Amino acid sequence: SQNPNLILVWAQDNPALEGIDLSNGNNEALTTFFGNRSPLLSCVQVDNLANIPNSWAIDEMVTSYSEDCQF
Q: What is the 8-class DSSP label of residue 47?
C-alpha cells in the first residue's frame, strides 16, 4: 500500500488471496490486520519485521511476514 494513513485492513475469509503488501512506511499506525482464514495467503509484506503488532491475525501455519515477499 502507498497509504501511510491505514489503520485497519480486513482481508480474512479470502480464499483467493495469496499475498498482501502492507509496507507503507507507517506500519506502526496499522493497528489491526485480519488475514486469517485465507488458506492461500503465504506472505504478508511489512516495513519492519521487528514492529509487527501482536493484534494482527494470520494463520501462522501457512502465512509468514517478510520485508520482501517477492511479489
A: S
Handedness of CA 8, 27, 14, 59 (dihedral sign): negative
Global pTM reads 0.90
Which residues lie below 8 Å from residue 11, measured CB to CB, with a gap of 6+?
17, 20, 33, 34, 35, 38, 41
| Residue pLDDT, tens place only, 51-61 | 898 889 999 88
C-alpha cell at 12: 480474512
Which residue shows C-alpha cell 491475525? Answer: 57
For the chain, give the percent of residues with pLDDT over 70: 99
- Specify the pairing of strand 32-34 against strand 8-10: parallel
Rg (CA), the chain: 11
DSSP, res 29? G
